[in-house]
Write a structure and sequence with these properties.
Layout: E1 5-10, H1 17-29, E2 36-41, H2 47-53, E3 58-62, H3 79-84, E4 89-92, H4 95-99, H5 105-117, E5 121-126, H6 130-134, H7 138-150, E6 159-163, H8 177-194, H9 197-202, E7 205-207, H10 216-220, E8 227-230, H11 239-243
Parallel strand pairs: 1-2, 1-8, 2-3, 3-4, 4-5, 5-6, 6-7
Helix pairs in contact: 5-7, 7-8
């Protein structure tokens, strides 16, 4: 089954009204590979601005979502509110939230289910620390993170799995092409044995971790790498080159 290439841009806590408008203007004017699905995730404050300015064909993701539909949860945003604002995707499980905000696998799984139930697509981030990789625990850690979500939902049709080795995020280090492909293949194998062969064949597994315009083409050629979740490079004009990695 042919899986549509997927490139997400996670702006993290970066940007101003002007800089985000400039990024969007560059994307709107660029010649982007029509076969690639493109989603950007600006800070929540700028989601409505981005929705207003983005051209058709580029979608929006929130960087976070809560696991309840409404209520007394100061500072949180629900899946229903995001949908109401024209946002169609959300991230869950990013390592910065796992580590800095101490979000555990179960909470991330509940947020993922709430997002799916609320009609959003989910970019589900998984990955290991350097210590875990050096202890040969990469596959165990990643599959445990996935297993928590599988206990909450069996519908993976609107889930994109983003493998992001924590030691490669924002460090300039990148997993070798072989390392990335190996983990992606193991994730696909896990999907087949735990969810279904159909889910394994159709679920897109994307790579994140210091992806840039120099390394994206080699990574994109791997059979189980279906795109990228891009951090810092998504704030730069070179993001267009990453989107066009398969072109």
């Amino acid at each position: 089954m042919a899986r549509q290439f997927f490139v997400g841009g996670n702006f993290k806590m970066n940007g101003t009204t002007k800089s985000i408008q400039d990024i969007i203007s560059n994307l709107n004017d660029a010649k982007l590979d029509s076969e690639t699905e493109v989603v950007i995730a600006p800070p929540a404050l700028y989601l409505l601005l981005a929705r207003e300015k983005l051209r058709k064909g580029i979608e929006l993701a929130a960087q976070n979502v809560f696991d309840k539909p409404n209520g007394a949860f100061t500072g949180e945003i629900s899946a229903e509110q995001l949908r109401d604002s024209g946002v169609t995707w959300t991230l869950t499980g990013h390592s910065e939230r796992r580590v800095i905000m101490a979000e555990g696998d179960d909470f991330i799984a509940r947020k993922t289910k709430a997002a799916l139930d609320g009609g959003l697509g989910v970019i589900l981030c998984v990955g290991e620390t350097l210590e875990q990789r050096e202890g040969n625990k990469t596959i165990e850690i990643v599959t445990n993170q996935l297993k928590a979500v599988a206990e909450q939902t069996k519908d993976w049709s609107r889930v994109v799995v983003a493998y992001e080795p924590v030691w490669a995020i924002g460090t300039g280090k990148v997993a070798s092409t072989e390392q990335a492909q190996e983990v992606h293949a193991e994730i696909r194998k896990w999907l087949s044995s735990t969810i279904s062969k159909e889910a394994s064949d159709s679920t897109r597994i994307i790579y994140g971790g210091s992806v840039n315009e120099k390394n994206c083409r080699d990574l994109a050629q791997q059979p189980d790498i279906d795109g990228f979740l891009v951090g810092g490079a998504s704030l730069k004009p070179a993001f267009v080159d990453i989107i066009n990695a398969k072109a």
